From TrEMBL:
Catalyzes the oxidation of protoporphyrinogen IX to protoporphyrin IX. The keyword Magnesium does not apply. Its EC number is 1.3.99.-. Pfam families: UPF0093 (PF03653). Belongs to the HemJ family. This is Protoporphyrinogen IX oxidase. The gene is hemJ. Homodimer.
Length: 149
């Protein structure tokens, strides 16, 4: 089993990075849709229905599967002997970053359900600010896993 994982290591890492790219694309784009939904579209009418569909499809078709795939391939990488040395700092900063990224994903899913019910309490400016969260977490995660401090 361990031999198989060693052979599969570059393939698993490639799949992990592909899943990360798809997940991040959604994490950057969904808050932008919320900015326009909050500022320009409002909570009724045909454009509201269109935005709701776009938000739902982005989350269900791209972001949820990409997040699950990122976790599965990431945990497989953790399971390969020698890949993670828990006595170093980077695995802990990376773990904190990915847990925060997952919490951000869940928060976005909650906002989407709110819009779908015709409810929204945040302004476009607040969504713009929240849009910076995945960028900051991405910097932390990528520095952790590449620089390996
Ligand atoms: C969701 C849970 C995640 C887990 C369990 C996880 C775990 C891992 C592990 C163990 C590695 C292998 C490190 C190595 O080969 O030295 C890795 C590689 C990588 N991860 Fe993650 N990861 C996760 C999410 C993410 C996220 C959200 C990002 C980006 C925002 C990311 C970006 C990367 C990159 C770029 C690499 C390749 C680094 C390199 O080979 O130099 N990962 N991940």
């Amino acid at each position: 089993m361990t031999d198989l994982l060693f052979t599969a290591y570059p393939w698993i890492k490639a799949l992990h990075i592909m899943a990360v790219i798809a997940w991040m694309a959604g994490l950057f784009y969904l808050p932008r849709l919320f900015v326009y939904h909050a500022e320009q579209v409002g909570l009724d009418g045909t454009t509201h229905a269109l935005f709701q569909t776009m938000e739902m499809k982005l989350l269900r078709v791209i972001m949820n599967p990409a997040m699950i795939a990122t976790w599965i391939f990431g945990i497989l990488l953790v399971g390969i002997p020698g890949v993670v040395d828990w006595s170093l700092v980077w695995p802990w900063t990376k773990a904190a970053g990915v847990i925060a990224m997952t919490a951000f994903h869940m928060w976005l899913a909650g906002r989407r359900r709110g819009f779908a019910r015709g409810e929204n309490s945040l302004t476009g400016r607040q969504y713009r600010m929240m849009n910076e969260v995945p960028t900051l977490l991405m910097v932390l995660i990528v520095l952790s896993v590449v620089v390996k401090f």
